[in-house]
Write a structure and sequence with these properties.
There is one protein chain. The chain has one domain: Four Helix Bundle (Hemerythrin (Met), subunit A) (Up-down Bundle). It is an all-alpha fold and 182 residues long. The chain is globular and about 60 Å long. Helix content is 83%, strand content 0%. The model has no long low-confidence stretch (mean pLDDT 90). The longest helix is centred in the last third of the chain and has 37 residues.
């Protein structure tokens, strides 16, 4: 049972290339099933890790990497195909790139070694998964366009808000680091 959370994260990572293939070939029904399963495993891995005391260093890295690969790849694939507005893809990918750059700088130049996700980061990830699910459900005829619009702007708003929150956290960390050096 203790290996199950990491296995779920690894499975999500392994699903990514297949999802990108399905999206690129506009096989939206199958892609909807894959992204839905990925979303479920994302929720389950953390829940199981806490429930069974199975949190691990590997899981702390594997889970967000799987999320970012899956979501960034989905947004990129859909944007290149014209299915997602390019501004939204740039927003999602840009936020993740800037957070990654900050984490690298903090790792190289400070004593900070832990980068736990914030509530707003998790909310942003959830809204991005929701947007992709709603978009694919719309493409398969299950949902109307109004739901896509609502999900799109919710994902955009939470992506921006979570970035601002992470920037605020980064500023605090750098301020503490500067104070410690003085």
């Amino acid at each position: 049972m203790k290996l199950l959370p990491n296995a779920l994260s690894a499975a999500r990572l392994a699903l990514a290339p297949w999802l990108f293939y399905l999206l690129w070939h506009r096989q939206y029904g199958l892609a909807l099933i894959v992204i839905f399963l990925a979303g479920v495993t994302d929720g389950l891995d953390g829940l199981l890790a806490r429930a069974f005391g199975a949190a691990s260093k590997l899981g702390a890295y594997l889970d967000p990497v799987a999320d970012k690969v899956l979501l960034s790849g989905a947004f990129l694939t859909l944007a290149l195909d014209g299915a997602v507005a390019k501004w939204l893809a740039v927003l999602v990918l840009g936020r993740d790139a800037l957070i990654l750059i900050f984490a690298c700088v903090a790792f190289l130049f400070t004593s900070v070694r832990s980068f736990p996700p914030s509530f707003w980061g998790k909310a942003s990830t959830t809204s991005q998964i929701t947007y992709i699910v709603v978009l694919l459900a719309h493409f398969t005829g299950l949902l109307g366009a109004i739901f896509v619009t609502l999900a799109e702007y919710s994902a955009a708003a939470l992506t921006v808000w979570s970035f601002l929150h992470y920037a605020w956290i980064a500023r605090r960390i750098l301020r503490v680091h500067q104070t410690a050096k003085s």
